[in-house]
Fold these 2 entries.
Entry 1:
Amino acid sequence: MAEFWGPLAALAGEWEGEGGLDTAYSHSQHKVLGTPFREKCTLKSFGPVANGSQELYGLDYKSAMWRNDEENPFHTEVGYWLYDAATGEIMRGFVVPRGITTLAGGTAAADATEFTLHAAKGEANYTIGENLYLAKEASTLSYDATITIGDDTWSYDETTMLKMAEFAEPFSHTDRNTLHRVG
Ligand code: HEM
């Protein structure tokens, strides 16, 4: 699989993680909060997808994060991971159901165990779209993630810079977790 999916081959499957940590501004508590969370994530392989001479292999994914034993997740994502083995281009395109779409990208060797992804508002290729309310009140300026792959485990550490109405300076909204294979 690594020949076509590169580092994404190790991510296919079902995953859970108990030790997530989110830092965000809470509108209900009017302060910045560090929130522990648990997470489930499913990634399914597909490919190839042909764009002319480009061949992409990928994973479609769904992830959800919960606080404690709450019934409804407080954050979810659906999206695609994509890899171009000819160039090493690696991408994660996803939607956060606040009305945000992100296509983040980077490069990674097929056997990489760590790689980074970047997107920023207004950039030509790896960029962020958001709804009209968020553009005024909490605009996503950039998204940066580091992915680290272990043995039946993988971790992410991501920073989403937000221009929030509540703060004069951009606010660093961060999330990290380590996921363990359950299927
Ligand atoms: C594990 C990943 C994530 C978790 C657990 C998470 C969780 C949260 C939480 C708890 C809030 C505060 C909501 C409130 O009380 O008002 C928030 C705000 C926000 N998040 Fe995330 N988030 C994650 C990732 C992301 C990503 C990747 C993006 C964008 C690409 C994003 C964009 C935003 C925005 C724009 C807001 C501000 C909404 C507002 O102030 O109205 N988040 N997030």
Entry 2:
Amino acid sequence: MISDVLAKMQAAAENPQALKERYLAEGRKIVLTAPVYTPAEIIHSMGLVPMGAWGGDTQLNAAKKYYPAFLCAIIQSITELGMRGVYDGVSAILVPSLCDSLKVLGENWKYAVPEIPFIPMTYPQNRKPEYALDFTVAGYRRVIRDLEQITGSSFSEERLKESMALYNEHNALMRQVSAELAAHPEITAAERSAIFKSAWFLCREEHCGLCRELLDELKNSSAGTEKKIPVAVTGILADAPGLLKILDENGLQIVADDVAAESRQYRTDSVIGEDALYSLARKFSARNCCSVLYDPEKKRVEALVKTAKAAGARGVLMILTKFCDPEEFDYPLIRRACTAAGLPFVSIETDRQMENHEQAATIIETFRDMMED
Ligand code: SF4
């Protein structure tokens, strides 16, 4: 039954702590991966379990010692959870250098949570030229060296190719799931979020299995008759339970997303060639349409409009993570492009401590009315 698969995904999304304990009890070593793009395939190929660390909805206390109040709450909450011992038992945290806040996270982590080693992944700003591939591969080699030293695991190019093939398979499954969900208005925004969020915590083999089960169930069940308003969502994160509840209460269905923690992860596959590390670097270089990736042409904006229209969305909701510079730069462009394309557009600012959702509820009600007109 669909509900059985969803329940497993929801359990993983809501309680990654239990999964962490399970993997540790099985004798497996865990490496945390910070937003937005990390070479998780390398971690997986070395027999380690990559687990996403995107922070959590929590009050910030101890982390305030390390950051100004205007730093994005994802970074602050990752540190807060680390200082509180939530990640105890993991072997390391891998932090990519994709925005200024992430650079600050790595440096502060060394002092705030010294018991969990910090591994940097330094990406080139300009990722397309051939010389950028050399730079990215040098970053991977540093990651491998650190992982070998910290965990005692070894690296092999052949195993990396196998992991890349598995990650490609998972990408394809997630794209199929996302497309299939658009035809199932009975799946709530909260359930959709759990499908994507659980992928950060469950090991790839397990999540692939659940996705296959879910796809079978969705294809064999008739779509609900509920009439909902199809919308597209963009932003870094879209997992705040209070906000998802408002979307569900207002009868909005997410039919497509351009969310960094969701579909942006699964758009680009590895083309596996002779040299595994260069193939992985080419995957990073081929990524596009994301606020943290250098793009003077801002192709993300038009791509979002195109995706929203292709999925039949009647409006675009931008969930803006507070103090996220990369997304704030794109906000006026997205707003203008949606308006020009005749797509009602609203934005809601969120952080990881959002308790009062009254303003968000008012915005969503207005958004619904705009689309009903
Ligand atoms: S939310 Fe924005 S500022 Fe924060 S880590 Fe992600 S990209 Fe960087």
